[in-house]
């Protein structure tokens, strides 16, 4: 018997899923250990193994927020930035756009640059945009820079020379000299050789910033798994939804910045709906993404480290990163989000989270502030979780809000529930309405420890009539890791390339080498795409490659219409070439079974089946539509009938589904998914 393990480390919980070669699944959910994230992983892996032979584990796939946290908390390595003479101020000057809430702030202070101005260095050289050497590289200038970097004790360097995407020879020589005295050196031509000097520089800097931390972390993870007897290869989910080796993740650490959220979207894409909205609510954040044609939307530039990542493409929300990433909107709203009163006495929820330590008040681990989880417990939506919950401390925490507000405890709790639902709806708004997409024809796929409790409320705000809660929804991100295929991306900007076949061939060979496979292997799939723009424009759009200029123009025109909402024609020019190499030889877990093929969620026109006697209990839960607390049936997936009208509650081991009035829950037994449909009995 062979086993694969998926590990997702979140802000509050660490989720571990083990799947055997027959498809049987075991799960573990334990509190994250922020002082040592690997300790929580070891605890979870030990639980899911539970007497199984660890030597039979053939693969470990990991999603981690390590890189994201390092950027947000500024705990990465000190970086020296090395560039062409005359361009050292590109990074300190930056390209900052103010988000709406900052535009009229007279005391606005821009964020600090990713590298301090005094740690930016210049070397003598110059290459043109078409790769011609205009000024030869002066090795002496590089050695002087290397000596100064070493004298300052800087252990990581980012090299980004002007137009090195067109000719990387100078960058490679600079890196060769620097490596004699600097422990870690990253070049832009290795990380992401694209046009736009500032974005290419920040991408390289971020990789140098988090690379040493990622390399150390993954090395320790392998060692501690080996101590358990697990010696299988460790793979890491990258931001674009592919899976890469731990060694490649250490070298291209910037590709893992959105590692954690990407895994959950893959799970949502496997729910069987071609048009879906992924809705992931954990303990710290909530994330939304659009899935179209069964595939998540991908962006080639996103921002990290700003005040809020409300849609990764939104300028002004951090440092720009040029690498493929699943296109998410994220808000600081989760089960652990703290409810508080601002200076004007208005109720706010988040973005600060109680996390796993001290956690919500109901965890009984020392937390005393009211959180979303405490509110949901007071409302009767929760009775148990992965750890025991204590109603007394939760009630006391909510009373501290209710008193100043002059309302009852229940009213305060319901207000917290509604406010956090509205905040999460804002994330869905960003990836749909704000981008010209009508969400009403989509299914909302809800997962995460807290997502199914709020999903119907969020869907109702947009007129979405179908909510899908997959099996093992509380650990869906960890399960989604096992559906990821071994893959990686490569890109290169080439202006007036002529015949692009040599460029594609070179990129394919590099990507295949990263994965340790041959491009000609039957198990290897190669996808080609190209960045195209109207001649004379500055920005481009990515479309699938075709050697036919007419087909390429048609694809670009259609993509242009989707993005900008207008039909436009004109002369086009390719400016960049991309490949994605994927290994499809069965080294990954099979894709999740499609629930859409199993027929409608509501099995025929039958009347709702009442809960069988003794199949589930009942308890009081708060529903404003019913005027307060009402007795509702409480089921598990195993005890619920085929149709369960709301209000009702369905409890899983890792999460709880709340079925509001006017909604009906249906169990799809083959997949274990629960479908909620609007318009049931009021």
Notable traits:
single chain; 682 residues; alpha+beta; nine-stranded mixed β-sheet; six-stranded mixed β-sheet; Oxoprolinase-like; Hydantoinase/oxoprolinase family protein; Hydantoinase_A; ACX-like_C
Rg calc: 26 Å
The CA-CA distance between the termini, in Å, is 49 Å
Gross geometry: globular
Structural category: alpha+beta
Number of helices, counting only DSSP H or I runs of 4 residues or more: 16
Beta-strand residue fraction? 25-35%
Largest sheet, strands/sense/barrel: 9 strands, mixed
Q: Helical proportion?
A: 25-40%
Unreliable runs, pLDDT <50, ≥5 residues? 586-615
- Count the strands? 35
Instruction: Provide the residue-averaged pLDDT.
Output: 86
Overview of the structural elements:
With 682 residues, the protein is α+β, with helices and mostly antiparallel strands. It has 16 helices and 35 strands. The strands form nine sheets. Strands 13, 14, 15, 20, 23, 24, 31, 34 and 35 form a nine-stranded mixed sheet that branches. The longest helix has 31 residues, at 197-227. The protein is globular, with a radius of gyration of 26 Å. It starts with a strand and ends with a strand.
Secondary-structure map with pairings?
Blueprint: E1 3-9, E2 13-20, E3 25-31, H1 37-49, E4 57-63, H2 66-73, E5 79-84, H3 90-93, E6 120-123, E7 126-127, E8 133-135, H4 139-151, E9 156-159, H5 169-178, E10 184-187, H6 188-191, H7 197-227, E11 234-237, E12 243-245, H8 246-251, H9 259-269, E13 276-281, E14 286-292, E15 295-296, E16 298-299, E17 302-305, E18 318-321, E19 325-326, E20 328-331, E21 337-341, E22 347-353, H10 372-378, H11 391-405, H12 409-431, E23 443-447, H13 451-460, E24 466-469, H14 476-481, E25 486-493, H15 501-515, E26 524-534, E27 541-544, H16 549-564, E28 572-583, E29 617-623, E30 628-635, E31 643-645, E32 648-651, E33 656-659, E34 663-668, E35 673-678
Helix pairs in contact: 2-7, 4-5, 10-11, 10-12, 11-12, 12-13
């Amino acid at each position: 018997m062979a086993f694969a393990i998926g590990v997702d480390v979140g802000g509050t919980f660490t989720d571990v899923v083990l799947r055997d070669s027959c498809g049987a699944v075991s799960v573990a959910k334990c509190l994250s250990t922020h002082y040592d994230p690997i300790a929580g992983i070891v605890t979870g892996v030990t639980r899911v193994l539970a007497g199984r032979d660890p030597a039979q584990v053939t693969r470990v796939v990991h999603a981690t927020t390590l890189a994201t946290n390092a950027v947000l908390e500024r705990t990465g390595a000190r970086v020296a930035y090395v560039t062409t003479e005359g361009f050292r101020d590109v990074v300190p000057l930056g390209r900052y756009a103010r988000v709406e809430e900052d535009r009229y702030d007279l005391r606005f202070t821009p964020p600090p640059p990713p590298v301090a101005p005094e740690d930016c260095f210049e070397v003598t050289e110059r290459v043109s945009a078409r790769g011609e050497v205009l000024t030869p590289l002066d090795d002496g200038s590089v050695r002087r820079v290397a000596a100064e970097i070493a004298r300052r004790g800087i252990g990581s360097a980012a090299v980004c020379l002007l137009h090195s995407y067109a000719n990387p020879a100078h960058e490679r020589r600079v890196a060769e000299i620097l490596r004699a005295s600097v422990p870690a050196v990253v070049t832009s031509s290795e990380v992401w050789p694209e046009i736009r000097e500032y974005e290419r520089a920040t991408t390289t800097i971020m990789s140098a910033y988090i690379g040493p931390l990622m390399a150390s972390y993954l090395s320790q993870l392998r060692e501690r798994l080996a101590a358990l007897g697990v010696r299988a290869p460790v793979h890491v989910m990258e931001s674009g939804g592919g899976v890469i080796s731990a060694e490649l993740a250490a070298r291209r650490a910037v590709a893992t910045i959105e590692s954690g959220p990407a895994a959950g979207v893959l799970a949502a894409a496997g729910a069987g709906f071609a048009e879906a909205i992924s809705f992931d609510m954990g303990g710290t954040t909530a994330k939304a993404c659009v899935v179209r044609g069964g595939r998540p939307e991908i962006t080639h530039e996103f921002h990290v480290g700003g005040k809020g990542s409300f849609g990764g493409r939104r300028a002004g929300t951090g440092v720009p990163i040029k690498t493929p990433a699943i296109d998410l909107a994220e808000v600081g709203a989760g089960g652990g989000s703290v409810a508080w009163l601002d200076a004007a006495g208005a109720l706010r929820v988040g973005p600060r989270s109680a996390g796993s330590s001290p956690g919500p008040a109901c965890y009984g681990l020392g937390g005393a502030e009211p959180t979303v989880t405490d509110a949901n417990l007071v409302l009767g939506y929760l009775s148990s979780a992965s750890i025991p919950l204590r109603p007394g401390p939760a009630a006391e925490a909510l009373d501290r809000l209710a008193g100043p507000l002059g309302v009852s405890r229940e009213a305060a709790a319901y207000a917290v529930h509604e406010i956090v639902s509205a905040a999460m709806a804002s994330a869905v708004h960003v990836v749909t309405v704000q981008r010209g997409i009508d969400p009403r024809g989509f299914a909302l796929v809800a997962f995460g420890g807290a997502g199914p409790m709020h999903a119907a409320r969020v869907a109702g705000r947009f007129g979405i009539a179908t909510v899908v809660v997959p099996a093992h929804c509380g650990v869906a991100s960890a399960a989604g890791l096992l559906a990821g295929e071994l893959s990686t991306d490569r890109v290169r900007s080439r202006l007036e390339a002529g015949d692009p076949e040599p460029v594609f061939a070179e990129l394919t060979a590099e990507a295949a080498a990263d994965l340790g496979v041959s491009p000609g292997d039957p198990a290897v799939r190669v996808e080609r795409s190209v960045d195209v723009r109207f001649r004379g424009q500055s920005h481009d759009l990515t479309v699938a490659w075709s050697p036919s200029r007419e087909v390429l123009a048609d694809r670009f025109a259609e993509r242009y219409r989707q993005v900008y909402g207008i039909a436009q024609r004109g002369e086009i020019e390719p400016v960049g070439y991309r490949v994605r190499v994927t290994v499809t030889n069965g080294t990954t877990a099979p894709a999740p079974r499609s629930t859409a093929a199993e027929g409608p969620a509501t099995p025929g026109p039958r009347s709702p089946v009442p809960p069988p006697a003794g199949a589930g209990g009942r308890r009081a839960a708060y529903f404003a539509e019913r005027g307060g607390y009402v007795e509702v049936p409480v089921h598990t997936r195993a005890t619920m009938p085929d149709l369960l009208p709301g209000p009702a509650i369905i409890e899983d081991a890792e999460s709880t589904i709340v079925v509001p009035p006017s909604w009906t829950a249906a169990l799809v037994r083959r997949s274990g998914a629960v479908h909620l449909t609007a318009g049931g009995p009021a």
